[in-house]
Each structure stands twice: as structure tokens, then as C-alpha cells.
Write a structure and sequence with these properties.
Distance between the termini: 5 Å
Largest sheet: 6 strands, antiparallel
Protein name: Translationally-controlled tumor protein homolog
Oligomer: single chain
Strand order of the largest sheet: 3-4-10-9-8-7
Helix content: 25-40%
Family: Belongs to the TCTP family.
CATH topology: Metal Binding Protein, Guanine Nucleotide Exchange Factor, Chain A
Radius of gyration: 20 Å
Order of helices and strands: EEEEEEHEHHEEEE
Strand content: 25-35%
GO molecular function, one term: calcium ion binding
Organism: Xylaria hypoxylon
Domain TCTP: 1-171
Structural class: alpha+beta
Number of domains: 1
């Protein structure tokens, strides 16, 4: 299994793994389909009858629907307005570019990142109101902001991470 870790943040938060159905888009991001799962609500039957004298102990054991990727990687919701996200994105892209140069990435990869990131950034900013934003578990402000949107059916969620902003870790 491959786990994609945030290459920019100091905490190296885990953001995605290849155990989810993901694909590379435009050579610059990875998209992974999510699903809503139910957590909690463990029903244990020990085969005994409840005593008439016993009162309900008031344990709240209700089920909760969560996004499987957001839950699995402990992503934390955050919010931006369009201007602040644009400002964040500009700074983040500079950090990714510095990261690529520091690891001696080929010029072709750096050029592909610059072109692809500009195009994808415009796409996100153009449909800004459709996106949700998540930080890694450590909530490091320098790290990657994971994007979440819904497919054309309006029901299927998917996350987007920047391909050049992650390190792959085999486990």
C-alpha cells in the first residue's frame, strides 16, 4: 500500500492512500472518490433480558454518517473566502516549487507543475462555492489544503490533493 503524505508541512500528515480508487488528473492532482459510511452504533447482544428494575443508563450509541476519506485520515474542516484561498494557494504553490527544486526534480516536471497548477487553480477559483476545504490532522497552516467536491450526480463526493505536494510512503 502507498500512503500519500503532505510533503510541505512539518508534521507530514497522511492525506490519502492507494487503497481508495484514485486517478491522476491533468498531471497535477490526484482525485479519489469517497463514500459516506456509518460509524458508531455498536449493537451488542449478550443474550440476556433487560431487568424490569434497571433503568436506561443513557448511553448515546447513535450511528453517524461520515466521509470515509475525511474520517480515515482525520482531516479537519476549514474555511476560506475566495480572496484568502487565492492568497493561500499562491503561497502554497511557491512552497511546492521550492520543494521540487530542493529534491532536484527535472525541469520538465517543474514546468508541468507550473502549467498544470495554474490551470487547475483557475478551475477551483472559478467554481469556488462548490468546494469544501480540509487540513491534515495536525492542522498545520503551511501544509496542503485537501479539496472536496461532488461529481455531476450531486451525490458522489471526491477529494483532490496536489500531486507534487505529497511524498509517497510504501507500507
Amino acid at each position: 500500500m502507498i500512503i500519500f503524505k503532505d510533503a510541505i508541512s512539518s508534521s507530514k500528515d497522511e492525506l490519502l492512500s492507494d487503497s481508495y480508487d484514485f486517478k491522476e488528473v491533468d498531471g497535477v492532482v490526484y482525485e479519489a472518490d469517497c463514500s459516506m459510511i456509518e460509524i458508531g452504533a455498536v449493537d451488542v447482544d449478550i443474550g440476556a433480558n433487560a431487568s424490569a428494575e434497571e433503568a436506561d443508563e443513557g448511553v448515546d450509541d447513535s450511528a453517524q454518517k461520515v466521509n470515509n476519506i475525511v474520517h480515515s485520515f482525520r482531516l479537519a474542516p476549514t474555511s476560506f473566502d475566495k480572496a484568502s484561498y487565492g492568497s493561500y494557494l499562491k503561497g502554497y504553490m511557491k512552497k511546492v516549487l521550492a520543494y521540487l527544486k530542493a529534491k532536484n526534480a527535472p525541469d520538465s516536471e517543474i514546468d508541468a507543475f507550473k502549467k498544470g497548477a495554474a490551470v487547475f487553480s483557475k478551475k477551483v477559483l472559478g467554481s469556488f462555492k462548490d468546494w469544501e476545504f480540509y487540513t491534515g490532522e495536525s492542522m498545520d497552516v503551511d501544509g496542503m489544503v485537501v479539496l472536496l467536491n461532488y461529481r455531476e450526480d450531486g451525490v458522489t463526493p471526491y477529494v483532490v490533493i496536489w500531486k507534487h505536494g505529497v511524498e509517497e510512503m510504501k507500507v
